[in-house]
Amino acid sequence: MTIKYTPDHEWLNIEGGSATVGITHHAQDALGDVVFVDLPEVGATLAAKDIAGVVESVKAAADVYMPVSGEITEVNEALRADPSLANSDPLGAGWFFKVKLSNPAELDALMDETSYTSYSAA
Amino acid sequence: MASPPDNLLLTPLNDLHIALGARMVPFAGYSMPVQYPAGLMAEHHHTRTAAGLFDVSHMGQLRLVGPDAAAAFESLIPVDVIDLPVGKQRYGLLLNDEGGIIDDLMFFKRESDIFVIVNGACKVGDIAHIQSKIGARCQVIPMPERALLALQGPQAVNALSRLAPGVEKLVFMTGGNFTVQAGTQAIEVFLTRSGYTGEDGFEISVHASQAQALAKALLAQPEVKPIGLGARNSLRLEAGLPLYGNDIDTGTTPVEAALGWAMQKVRRTEGARAGGFPGAAKILAQLAAGANGLERKRVGLIALERIPVREHTELQDLSGQRIGEVTSGLLGPTIDKPVAMGYVPPAFAALGTRINAIVRGKPVPMEVVAMPFVPTRYYRG
User: Fold this and answer.
1) In chain A, count of helices (H) and strands (E)?
2) ipTM score above 0.90
3) Is residue A108 one of the residues assigned to a domain?
4) Is B41 in Cβ contact with A58 (below 8 Å)?
5) A109 and B CB contact within 8 Å
6) Do B308 and A59 touch (CB under 8 A)?
Protein backbone atom coordinates (compact mmCIF):
# COMPACT_ATOMS: atom_id res chain seq x y z
CA MET A 1 0.00 0.00 0.00
CA THR A 2 1.33 3.39 -1.05
CA ILE A 3 -0.05 6.85 -0.34
CA LYS A 4 0.40 9.59 -2.92
CA TYR A 5 -0.73 13.21 -2.98
CA THR A 6 -1.82 15.71 -5.64
CA PRO A 7 -1.18 19.46 -5.80
CA ASP A 8 -4.97 19.85 -5.35
CA HIS A 9 -4.68 18.40 -1.83
CA GLU A 10 -6.11 14.99 -2.56
CA TRP A 11 -4.65 11.71 -1.35
CA LEU A 12 -4.62 8.31 -3.07
CA ASN A 13 -4.21 5.06 -1.25
CA ILE A 14 -2.91 2.72 -3.96
CA GLU A 15 -3.53 -1.00 -3.66
CA GLY A 16 -2.70 -3.05 -6.74
CA GLY A 17 -4.42 -1.54 -9.77
CA SER A 18 -6.88 0.55 -7.76
CA ALA A 19 -6.78 3.61 -5.56
CA THR A 20 -9.01 5.09 -2.87
CA VAL A 21 -9.21 8.89 -3.12
CA GLY A 22 -9.99 11.56 -0.54
CA ILE A 23 -9.03 15.09 0.48
CA THR A 24 -6.11 15.76 2.80
CA HIS A 25 -6.17 17.03 6.34
CA HIS A 26 -4.79 20.31 5.01
CA ALA A 27 -7.66 20.57 2.48
CA GLN A 28 -10.41 19.92 5.03
CA ASP A 29 -8.81 22.38 7.42
CA ALA A 30 -8.70 25.09 4.77
CA LEU A 31 -12.31 24.46 3.74
CA GLY A 32 -13.76 24.38 7.24
CA ASP A 33 -16.89 22.44 8.16
CA VAL A 34 -17.85 20.33 5.16
CA VAL A 35 -21.62 20.33 4.63
CA PHE A 36 -22.02 18.79 1.18
CA VAL A 37 -20.21 16.49 -1.18
CA ASP A 38 -21.06 15.54 -4.74
CA LEU A 39 -19.55 12.24 -5.83
CA PRO A 40 -19.02 10.79 -9.31
CA GLU A 41 -21.21 8.07 -10.81
CA VAL A 42 -20.05 4.53 -10.24
CA GLY A 43 -18.96 3.16 -13.62
CA ALA A 44 -17.94 6.55 -15.01
CA THR A 45 -14.59 6.65 -16.79
CA LEU A 46 -12.77 9.92 -16.17
CA ALA A 47 -9.44 11.33 -17.28
CA ALA A 48 -6.88 12.75 -14.88
CA LYS A 49 -7.78 16.37 -13.93
CA ASP A 50 -11.45 15.92 -14.86
CA ILE A 51 -13.85 17.20 -12.20
CA ALA A 52 -14.92 14.14 -10.26
CA GLY A 53 -16.93 15.77 -7.52
CA VAL A 54 -17.47 18.78 -5.30
CA VAL A 55 -16.81 19.44 -1.65
CA GLU A 56 -18.51 22.37 0.03
CA SER A 57 -18.22 23.96 3.42
CA VAL A 58 -20.54 26.68 4.65
CA LYS A 59 -18.10 29.27 3.35
CA ALA A 60 -16.64 27.75 0.18
CA ALA A 61 -17.07 25.20 -2.58
CA ALA A 62 -14.18 23.35 -4.22
CA ASP A 63 -14.03 20.91 -7.10
CA VAL A 64 -12.54 17.49 -6.49
CA TYR A 65 -10.34 16.53 -9.42
CA MET A 66 -9.68 13.09 -10.76
CA PRO A 67 -6.06 12.51 -9.62
CA VAL A 68 -5.45 9.80 -12.22
CA SER A 69 -7.36 8.36 -15.17
CA GLY A 70 -9.65 5.43 -14.58
CA GLU A 71 -13.06 4.00 -13.85
CA ILE A 72 -15.00 4.83 -10.69
CA THR A 73 -15.72 1.53 -8.94
CA GLU A 74 -17.22 2.72 -5.67
CA VAL A 75 -18.24 5.95 -3.94
CA ASN A 76 -18.53 6.60 -0.21
CA GLU A 77 -22.27 6.76 0.45
CA ALA A 78 -21.58 7.28 4.16
CA LEU A 79 -19.75 10.51 3.28
CA ARG A 80 -22.69 11.67 1.15
CA ALA A 81 -24.96 11.09 4.17
CA ASP A 82 -22.54 12.68 6.66
CA PRO A 83 -20.19 15.11 4.91
CA SER A 84 -18.56 16.01 8.23
CA LEU A 85 -16.60 12.74 7.94
CA ALA A 86 -14.35 14.69 5.56
CA ASN A 87 -13.36 16.84 8.56
CA SER A 88 -13.34 14.29 11.34
CA ASP A 89 -11.53 11.50 9.50
CA PRO A 90 -10.29 12.80 6.13
CA LEU A 91 -7.79 10.00 5.60
CA GLY A 92 -10.14 7.23 6.76
CA ALA A 93 -13.94 7.21 6.94
CA GLY A 94 -14.05 10.44 4.94
CA TRP A 95 -12.78 8.86 1.69
CA PHE A 96 -14.56 9.98 -1.51
CA PHE A 97 -14.32 7.30 -4.19
CA LYS A 98 -12.36 4.33 -5.51
CA VAL A 99 -10.89 4.26 -8.98
CA LYS A 100 -9.53 1.43 -11.14
CA LEU A 101 -6.39 2.88 -12.70
CA SER A 102 -6.24 2.91 -16.49
CA ASN A 103 -2.72 4.36 -16.63
CA PRO A 104 -0.69 3.53 -13.51
CA ALA A 105 2.28 5.46 -14.94
CA GLU A 106 0.40 8.65 -13.98
CA LEU A 107 1.15 7.84 -10.34
CA ASP A 108 4.80 8.71 -10.92
CA ALA A 109 3.93 12.39 -11.27
CA LEU A 110 2.26 12.55 -7.84
CA MET A 111 3.91 13.55 -4.57
CA ASP A 112 4.95 11.24 -1.76
CA GLU A 113 4.25 12.19 1.84
CA THR A 114 7.52 14.05 2.36
CA SER A 115 7.05 16.15 -0.77
CA TYR A 116 3.40 16.86 0.05
CA THR A 117 4.18 17.88 3.62
CA SER A 118 6.60 20.52 2.43
CA TYR A 119 4.25 21.52 -0.44
CA SER A 120 1.26 22.05 1.84
CA ALA A 121 3.32 23.94 4.41
CA ALA A 122 4.58 26.43 1.80
CA MET B 1 0.38 30.48 6.06
CA ALA B 2 1.17 33.65 4.17
CA SER B 3 1.09 36.84 6.22
CA PRO B 4 -1.58 39.38 5.21
CA PRO B 5 -0.66 42.00 2.62
CA ASP B 6 0.68 44.97 4.51
CA ASN B 7 -1.83 47.38 3.02
CA LEU B 8 -4.55 45.76 5.14
CA LEU B 9 -5.79 47.69 8.14
CA LEU B 10 -5.85 46.05 11.55
CA THR B 11 -8.59 46.40 14.14
CA PRO B 12 -7.71 47.15 17.79
CA LEU B 13 -8.42 43.46 18.52
CA ASN B 14 -5.94 42.08 15.99
CA ASP B 15 -3.48 40.73 18.58
CA LEU B 16 -6.32 39.06 20.45
CA HIS B 17 -7.62 37.37 17.28
CA ILE B 18 -4.18 35.96 16.59
CA ALA B 19 -3.74 34.83 20.20
CA LEU B 20 -7.13 33.08 19.96
CA GLY B 21 -5.95 31.20 16.85
CA ALA B 22 -8.22 32.95 14.36
CA ARG B 23 -7.87 32.43 10.63
CA MET B 24 -7.49 35.96 9.31
CA VAL B 25 -8.77 37.03 5.89
CA PRO B 26 -8.95 40.36 4.05
CA PHE B 27 -12.41 41.90 4.40
CA ALA B 28 -13.44 45.50 3.70
CA GLY B 29 -9.79 46.50 3.63
CA TYR B 30 -9.09 44.97 7.05
CA SER B 31 -7.48 41.77 8.21
CA MET B 32 -10.45 40.12 9.94
CA PRO B 33 -11.10 36.79 11.70
CA VAL B 34 -13.20 34.53 9.44
CA GLN B 35 -13.24 31.79 12.03
CA TYR B 36 -11.57 30.62 15.22
CA PRO B 37 -10.39 27.05 15.91
CA ALA B 38 -13.93 25.95 16.89
CA GLY B 39 -14.98 26.48 13.26
CA LEU B 40 -17.87 28.20 11.54
CA MET B 41 -20.51 25.60 12.37
CA ALA B 42 -19.73 25.43 16.09
CA GLU B 43 -19.49 29.23 16.24
CA HIS B 44 -22.87 29.58 14.55
CA HIS B 45 -24.54 27.14 16.95
CA HIS B 46 -22.84 28.74 19.94
CA THR B 47 -24.28 32.13 19.00
CA ARG B 48 -27.78 30.66 18.61
CA THR B 49 -27.62 28.87 21.98
CA ALA B 50 -25.31 30.96 24.21
CA ALA B 51 -23.43 34.14 23.33
CA GLY B 52 -20.90 35.06 20.66
CA LEU B 53 -18.48 37.97 20.58
CA PHE B 54 -17.83 39.54 17.18
CA ASP B 55 -15.22 42.15 16.26
CA VAL B 56 -16.97 44.49 13.85
CA SER B 57 -14.52 47.34 14.26
CA HIS B 58 -14.13 47.56 10.48
CA MET B 59 -17.55 49.20 10.37
CA GLY B 60 -17.78 52.97 10.18
CA GLN B 61 -19.00 55.02 13.14
CA LEU B 62 -19.86 58.68 12.83
CA ARG B 63 -21.79 61.44 14.51
CA LEU B 64 -24.07 64.05 13.01
CA VAL B 65 -24.17 67.12 15.24
CA GLY B 66 -26.24 70.28 15.15
CA PRO B 67 -29.85 71.46 15.45
CA ASP B 68 -30.54 70.68 11.79
CA ALA B 69 -28.88 67.23 11.82
CA ALA B 70 -32.09 65.16 11.83
CA ALA B 71 -33.72 67.12 9.01
CA ALA B 72 -30.48 67.08 7.04
CA PHE B 73 -30.07 63.33 7.44
CA GLU B 74 -33.67 62.82 6.31
CA SER B 75 -32.73 64.39 2.99
CA LEU B 76 -30.42 61.39 2.35
CA ILE B 77 -32.57 58.47 3.52
CA PRO B 78 -36.26 57.53 3.01
CA VAL B 79 -36.68 57.08 6.75
CA ASP B 80 -38.21 59.08 9.60
CA VAL B 81 -35.31 60.62 11.50
CA ILE B 82 -37.02 63.73 12.87
CA ASP B 83 -39.68 61.93 14.91
CA LEU B 84 -37.41 59.18 16.20
CA PRO B 85 -37.32 59.66 19.98
CA VAL B 86 -34.03 60.19 21.78
CA GLY B 87 -32.76 56.82 23.01
CA LYS B 88 -33.97 54.84 20.00
CA GLN B 89 -32.27 53.20 17.04
CA ARG B 90 -33.56 52.74 13.51
CA TYR B 91 -32.48 51.07 10.23
CA GLY B 92 -31.76 53.37 7.30
CA LEU B 93 -30.69 53.33 3.66
CA LEU B 94 -28.47 55.88 1.96
CA LEU B 95 -29.82 56.38 -1.56
CA ASN B 96 -28.48 57.76 -4.81
CA ASP B 97 -30.51 59.93 -7.18
CA GLU B 98 -31.81 56.85 -8.99
CA GLY B 99 -33.11 55.38 -5.72
CA GLY B 100 -30.29 52.82 -5.64
CA ILE B 101 -28.88 51.85 -2.27
CA ILE B 102 -25.45 53.37 -1.54
CA ASP B 103 -25.34 51.61 1.82
CA ASP B 104 -27.55 50.37 4.61
CA LEU B 105 -26.96 51.64 8.12
CA MET B 106 -28.19 51.94 11.69
CA PHE B 107 -28.68 55.28 13.40
CA PHE B 108 -29.41 56.21 16.98
CA LYS B 109 -30.86 59.45 18.26
CA ARG B 110 -28.95 60.81 21.26
CA GLU B 111 -29.44 64.10 23.13
CA SER B 112 -26.42 65.69 21.53
CA ASP B 113 -26.10 63.95 18.17
CA ILE B 114 -27.21 61.22 15.78
CA PHE B 115 -24.87 58.23 16.03
CA VAL B 116 -24.57 56.33 12.75
CA ILE B 117 -23.02 52.93 11.97
CA VAL B 118 -22.28 52.11 8.31
CA ASN B 119 -20.69 49.16 6.52
CA GLY B 120 -16.91 48.90 6.59
CA ALA B 121 -16.48 48.48 2.86
CA CYS B 122 -18.62 51.58 2.22
CA LYS B 123 -17.54 53.87 5.01
CA VAL B 124 -15.08 56.08 3.14
CA GLY B 125 -17.58 56.69 0.35
CA ASP B 126 -20.47 57.12 2.77
CA ILE B 127 -18.70 59.72 4.83
CA ALA B 128 -17.68 61.65 1.71
CA HIS B 129 -21.26 61.45 0.42
CA ILE B 130 -22.82 62.59 3.69
CA GLN B 131 -20.22 65.34 4.07
CA SER B 132 -20.78 66.66 0.56
CA LYS B 133 -24.59 66.55 0.77
CA ILE B 134 -25.27 67.81 4.30
CA GLY B 135 -21.89 68.94 5.62
CA ALA B 136 -23.10 72.55 5.43
CA ARG B 137 -26.18 71.78 7.56
CA CYS B 138 -24.57 69.80 10.39
CA GLN B 139 -21.19 68.58 11.53
CA VAL B 140 -20.26 65.16 10.12
CA ILE B 141 -17.73 63.67 12.54
CA PRO B 142 -16.15 60.29 11.72
CA MET B 143 -15.10 58.29 14.79
CA PRO B 144 -12.07 56.23 13.69
CA GLU B 145 -10.95 56.19 17.34
CA ARG B 146 -13.84 53.85 18.22
CA ALA B 147 -13.92 50.05 18.00
CA LEU B 148 -17.19 48.14 17.68
CA LEU B 149 -17.94 44.79 19.31
CA ALA B 150 -21.13 42.77 18.98
CA LEU B 151 -22.26 40.38 21.69
CA GLN B 152 -25.06 38.25 20.29
CA GLY B 153 -27.13 35.32 21.43
CA PRO B 154 -29.80 34.36 23.97
CA GLN B 155 -27.29 34.51 26.85
CA ALA B 156 -25.65 37.79 25.77
CA VAL B 157 -27.76 39.71 28.27
CA ASN B 158 -26.68 37.44 31.15
CA ALA B 159 -23.01 37.88 30.32
CA LEU B 160 -23.10 41.62 29.72
CA SER B 161 -25.40 42.55 32.62
CA ARG B 162 -22.92 40.89 35.00
CA LEU B 163 -20.34 43.49 33.96
CA ALA B 164 -22.69 46.36 33.13
CA PRO B 165 -25.78 46.19 35.34
CA GLY B 166 -28.76 47.90 33.74
CA VAL B 167 -28.31 46.70 30.17
CA GLU B 168 -30.93 44.03 30.82
CA LYS B 169 -33.58 46.79 31.02
CA LEU B 170 -32.97 47.88 27.43
CA VAL B 171 -35.34 46.61 24.74
CA PHE B 172 -34.57 45.92 21.08
CA MET B 173 -33.37 49.03 19.21
CA THR B 174 -32.71 51.12 22.29
CA GLY B 175 -29.41 51.86 24.02
CA GLY B 176 -27.33 54.22 26.07
CA ASN B 177 -24.06 54.95 27.84
CA PHE B 178 -22.91 52.28 30.27
CA THR B 179 -19.88 51.44 32.35
CA VAL B 180 -18.49 47.96 31.87
CA GLN B 181 -16.46 46.62 34.80
CA ALA B 182 -13.55 44.76 33.25
CA GLY B 183 -11.54 43.53 36.23
CA THR B 184 -10.27 46.64 37.93
CA GLN B 185 -10.89 48.75 34.85
CA ALA B 186 -14.15 50.67 34.38
CA ILE B 187 -14.75 51.06 30.65
CA GLU B 188 -17.18 53.65 29.33
CA VAL B 189 -19.13 52.40 26.33
CA PHE B 190 -22.09 53.39 24.21
CA LEU B 191 -24.20 50.34 23.38
CA THR B 192 -27.45 49.39 21.70
CA ARG B 193 -29.60 46.30 22.03
CA SER B 194 -29.48 45.20 18.41
CA GLY B 195 -27.35 43.22 16.00
CA TYR B 196 -27.04 41.26 12.80
CA THR B 197 -27.75 37.67 13.81
CA GLY B 198 -31.50 37.57 14.49
CA GLU B 199 -30.73 36.92 18.15
CA ASP B 200 -31.03 39.13 21.18
CA GLY B 201 -27.78 40.96 21.80
CA PHE B 202 -25.80 44.16 21.88
CA GLU B 203 -23.51 46.27 19.74
CA ILE B 204 -20.91 48.04 21.84
CA SER B 205 -18.95 51.10 20.75
CA VAL B 206 -15.78 51.57 22.77
CA HIS B 207 -12.63 53.62 22.50
CA ALA B 208 -10.02 51.64 20.59
CA SER B 209 -7.57 51.85 23.49
CA GLN B 210 -9.99 49.89 25.70
CA ALA B 211 -11.39 47.49 23.13
CA GLN B 212 -9.05 44.66 23.97
CA ALA B 213 -9.73 44.89 27.72
CA LEU B 214 -13.45 44.91 27.02
CA ALA B 215 -13.24 41.91 24.68
CA LYS B 216 -11.17 39.94 27.18
CA ALA B 217 -13.63 40.71 29.99
CA LEU B 218 -16.53 39.52 27.83
CA LEU B 219 -14.66 36.40 26.71
CA ALA B 220 -13.99 35.59 30.36
CA GLN B 221 -17.74 35.13 30.89
CA PRO B 222 -18.74 31.46 30.73
CA GLU B 223 -21.40 32.01 28.04
CA VAL B 224 -19.14 33.85 25.60
CA LYS B 225 -16.94 32.57 22.77
CA PRO B 226 -15.32 34.48 19.89
CA ILE B 227 -17.18 34.25 16.57
CA GLY B 228 -15.76 34.99 13.12
CA LEU B 229 -17.15 36.62 10.00
CA GLY B 230 -18.06 33.24 8.51
CA ALA B 231 -20.67 32.55 11.17
CA ARG B 232 -21.72 36.19 11.12
CA ASN B 233 -22.69 35.64 7.48
CA SER B 234 -24.59 32.39 8.07
CA LEU B 235 -26.37 33.89 11.09
CA ARG B 236 -27.49 37.02 9.25
CA LEU B 237 -28.63 35.02 6.24
CA GLU B 238 -30.80 32.73 8.36
CA ALA B 239 -32.21 35.91 9.95
CA GLY B 240 -33.19 37.16 6.48
CA LEU B 241 -30.96 40.22 6.76
CA PRO B 242 -29.45 41.50 3.52
CA LEU B 243 -25.69 41.89 3.10
CA TYR B 244 -24.64 45.08 1.35
CA GLY B 245 -22.71 44.30 -1.83
CA ASN B 246 -24.41 40.91 -2.20
CA ASP B 247 -28.13 41.33 -1.69
CA ILE B 248 -28.42 45.09 -2.08
CA ASP B 249 -26.35 47.64 -3.97
CA THR B 250 -26.67 50.79 -6.08
CA GLY B 251 -28.61 48.75 -8.66
CA THR B 252 -31.43 47.89 -6.25
CA THR B 253 -34.03 50.18 -4.72
CA PRO B 254 -35.44 49.62 -1.22
CA VAL B 255 -38.73 48.45 -2.78
CA GLU B 256 -37.02 45.89 -5.02
CA ALA B 257 -34.94 44.77 -2.03
CA ALA B 258 -38.13 44.13 -0.01
CA LEU B 259 -37.01 46.77 2.48
CA GLY B 260 -40.11 48.93 2.13
CA TRP B 261 -40.81 48.29 5.84
CA ALA B 262 -37.85 50.59 6.58
CA MET B 263 -39.76 53.55 5.07
CA GLN B 264 -42.17 54.98 7.61
CA LYS B 265 -45.55 56.40 6.50
CA VAL B 266 -44.44 59.96 7.10
CA ARG B 267 -41.96 59.72 4.20
CA ARG B 268 -44.39 57.99 1.82
CA THR B 269 -46.99 59.51 -0.49
CA GLU B 270 -49.56 61.43 1.58
CA GLY B 271 -47.22 61.43 4.57
CA ALA B 272 -46.48 64.73 6.33
CA ARG B 273 -42.89 64.69 4.97
CA ALA B 274 -43.44 62.58 1.87
CA GLY B 275 -40.50 62.28 -0.51
CA GLY B 276 -37.60 64.67 -0.19
CA PHE B 277 -34.99 61.93 -0.40
CA PRO B 278 -32.81 60.91 -3.38
CA GLY B 279 -34.73 58.84 -5.93
CA ALA B 280 -38.06 59.64 -4.25
CA ALA B 281 -40.03 59.90 -7.49
CA LYS B 282 -38.97 56.43 -8.58
CA ILE B 283 -39.34 54.80 -5.18
CA LEU B 284 -42.75 56.30 -4.41
CA ALA B 285 -43.96 55.27 -7.89
CA GLN B 286 -42.73 51.72 -7.23
CA LEU B 287 -44.62 51.67 -3.94
CA ALA B 288 -47.78 53.01 -5.60
CA ALA B 289 -47.62 50.43 -8.38
CA GLY B 290 -47.38 47.53 -5.95
CA ALA B 291 -45.36 44.38 -6.46
CA ASN B 292 -46.31 44.01 -10.11
CA GLY B 293 -44.81 47.39 -10.91
CA LEU B 294 -41.35 46.02 -10.20
CA GLU B 295 -38.97 44.28 -12.55
CA ARG B 296 -37.63 42.13 -9.75
CA LYS B 297 -37.90 41.60 -6.06
CA ARG B 298 -35.72 40.09 -3.34
CA VAL B 299 -37.12 36.81 -2.03
CA GLY B 300 -36.11 34.04 0.34
CA LEU B 301 -35.50 30.59 -1.13
CA ILE B 302 -35.13 27.11 0.34
CA ALA B 303 -33.69 24.28 -1.74
CA LEU B 304 -35.82 21.14 -1.71
CA GLU B 305 -32.71 18.97 -2.09
CA ARG B 306 -29.74 19.09 0.26
CA ILE B 307 -27.48 20.94 -2.19
CA PRO B 308 -26.08 24.35 -1.20
CA VAL B 309 -27.02 27.09 -3.67
CA ARG B 310 -24.49 29.89 -3.67
CA GLU B 311 -24.37 33.52 -4.76
CA HIS B 312 -24.52 34.15 -8.53
CA THR B 313 -26.31 30.85 -9.13
CA GLU B 314 -28.76 31.25 -12.01
CA LEU B 315 -32.47 30.94 -11.24
CA GLN B 316 -34.85 29.55 -13.87
CA ASP B 317 -38.57 29.01 -14.11
CA LEU B 318 -39.79 25.45 -14.51
CA SER B 319 -39.67 25.80 -18.30
CA GLY B 320 -35.95 26.62 -18.17
CA GLN B 321 -36.14 30.38 -18.78
CA ARG B 322 -33.64 32.46 -16.82
CA ILE B 323 -35.53 34.61 -14.30
CA GLY B 324 -32.85 35.85 -11.93
CA GLU B 325 -29.90 35.09 -9.72
CA VAL B 326 -29.07 34.10 -6.16
CA THR B 327 -27.34 36.91 -4.24
CA SER B 328 -26.48 34.98 -1.03
CA GLY B 329 -26.80 31.30 -0.28
CA LEU B 330 -25.45 28.57 1.95
CA LEU B 331 -26.46 25.59 4.00
CA GLY B 332 -28.09 27.22 7.02
CA PRO B 333 -26.55 25.55 10.08
CA THR B 334 -29.60 26.06 12.34
CA ILE B 335 -32.38 25.40 9.82
CA ASP B 336 -30.15 22.60 8.45
CA LYS B 337 -31.30 23.26 4.89
CA PRO B 338 -29.83 25.17 1.97
CA VAL B 339 -31.19 28.72 2.16
CA ALA B 340 -30.70 31.64 -0.21
CA MET B 341 -31.79 35.12 -1.14
CA GLY B 342 -32.16 36.20 -4.71
CA TYR B 343 -34.02 38.43 -7.12
CA VAL B 344 -36.92 37.21 -9.28
CA PRO B 345 -39.69 38.94 -11.22
CA PRO B 346 -42.84 39.58 -9.13
CA ALA B 347 -44.66 36.79 -10.97
CA PHE B 348 -42.30 34.35 -9.20
CA ALA B 349 -42.15 36.14 -5.84
CA ALA B 350 -45.30 34.69 -4.23
CA LEU B 351 -44.67 32.39 -1.28
CA GLY B 352 -44.75 28.76 -2.32
CA THR B 353 -43.62 29.40 -5.91
CA ARG B 354 -41.38 26.66 -7.26
CA ILE B 355 -38.34 27.59 -9.32
CA ASN B 356 -35.01 25.96 -10.16
CA ALA B 357 -31.46 26.97 -9.30
CA ILE B 358 -28.90 25.74 -11.81
CA VAL B 359 -26.04 24.21 -9.80
CA ARG B 360 -23.18 22.77 -11.86
CA GLY B 361 -25.52 22.48 -14.83
CA LYS B 362 -28.28 20.65 -12.99
CA PRO B 363 -31.59 22.08 -11.79
CA VAL B 364 -32.06 22.12 -8.03
CA PRO B 365 -35.71 22.75 -7.08
CA MET B 366 -36.28 25.70 -4.75
CA GLU B 367 -39.33 27.21 -3.13
CA VAL B 368 -39.98 30.88 -2.38
CA VAL B 369 -40.44 31.17 1.37
CA ALA B 370 -40.93 33.91 3.95
CA MET B 371 -37.89 35.31 5.73
CA PRO B 372 -36.45 35.08 8.31
CA PHE B 373 -35.57 31.44 7.78
CA VAL B 374 -34.99 31.06 11.52
CA PRO B 375 -37.34 32.96 13.87
CA THR B 376 -35.74 36.11 15.26
CA ARG B 377 -35.56 36.44 19.04
CA TYR B 378 -35.18 40.15 19.63
CA TYR B 379 -35.95 41.31 23.17
CA ARG B 380 -39.00 43.54 23.10
CA GLY B 381 -39.65 43.61 26.85
Assistant:
1) 4, 9
2) no
3) no
4) yes
5) no
6) no
